[in-house]
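Practice problem: predict the structure.
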Amino acid sequence: MHSQSDNSKNNRLLGILITASLILITPLVAMQFTDEVNWSGFDFLIIGVLLFGAGVICELVLRKVKALRHRFALCAAVLIVFFLIWAELAVGIFGTPFAGS
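Answer:
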């Protein structure tokens, strides 16, 4: 039998995955209305991997790490790395070859 705790964990994971999907759909919708957003399939693949990866890693941290302070610190670190990679890929804030600069 599943406990209430397992249900809430599964609901949280589902919420993370739905949120990541909605974020991923945003540029797709924008592309239908403006030429300012021009993403390729590879762009969607990369941000999808980043979004879902960050979400699943945060969920893993929330499930496995018991100390609230450590949970917060680890999830914050995951999100900071996610945003730095995203910014580098989007505009090349560090000017690395990773961003195609």
